[in-house]
Amino acid sequence: MGHHLCAIATTRPVADEVCARVPQAFVMPLEHGVVMVPVIGAVSEALGDQHPLEGPAMGALHRFFESRPDHQLEALCAEVSSTGDVALISTDYFGGVGEQLAAVWSGGRVVFAERSAGDGPVRWKRSRGPINRALRILGVKRSWGRDEFDAVGLGEHRDLEDFDPEYS
């Protein structure tokens, strides 16, 4: 089973600001006070970025890790982080092989950015993965048997295509 997601994770007030700036965006409630704004094709296109589902790279966050942080999605995250912390997260897994990426902005600056290895099976403890670390910065606490990723309910949202009317 795969997991393919690219989203902004933050609080509701910050997500509302994202939606005010990008009318194609919408908010999905998670748990522990966190919401996500899926970066579907219409959102990427409105920002002038490549569609996040095209090619082996998952869009803007991958470009961020390729030293190109000047794209509109990253700029948006930086701008709205003056209201509250913002995490841009991405997963691309199938059969236990894949990668995670996460970056967190606070006060307009990147305070965390990490990319997991992408070619082999996952080798880190789940609690140490990039997305878990980013969610911890947002204040998410893990619970018994559930890391931060599962605590907010990201495991229930497996594929970006599920949110994109273009693929319905």
Written overview of the protein:
With 168 residues, this protein is of the alpha+beta class. The chain has helices at residues 12-21, 41-46, 60-65, 72-80, 130-137, 148-152; strands spanning 2-10, 28-29, 35-38, 86-94, 97-106, 109-115. A hairpin with a 5-residue loop joins strand 2 (28-29) and strand 3 (35-38). The chain is globular, with a radius of gyration of 14 Å. It starts with a strand and ends in a 16-residue tail after the last helix. Mean pLDDT is 77; it is low at 50-60 and 120-125.
Protein topology:
Elements: E1 2-10, H1 12-21, E2 28-29, E3 35-38, H2 41-46, H3 60-65, H4 72-80, E4 86-94, E5 97-106, E6 109-115, H5 130-137, H6 148-152
Antiparallel strand pairs: 1-3, 1-4, 2-3, 4-5, 5-6
Summarize the structure.
The chain is α+β, with helices and mostly antiparallel strands and 168 residues long. The protein is 26% helix and 24% strand. A hairpin with a 2-residue loop joins strand 4 and strand 5.
Question: Which features would summarize this protein structure in a list?
Answer:
6 helices
Global geometry: globular
Helix share of residues? Answer: 25-40%
The number of E-state strands comes to 6
| Terminal residue distance | 19 Å
Largest sheet: 6 strands, antiparallel
**Assembly level:** single chain
Structural class of the secondary structure composition?
A: alpha+beta
Reading the helices and strands in chain order gives EHEEHHHEEEHH
Integer average pLDDT: 77
- Counting DSSP H or I runs of 4 or more residues, the number of helices is 6
Low-confidence region ranges: 50-60, 120-125
Biggest sheet, spatial arrangement of strands: 2-3-1-4-5-6
Rg from Cα: 14 Å
As a percent range, the share of strand residues is: 15-25%
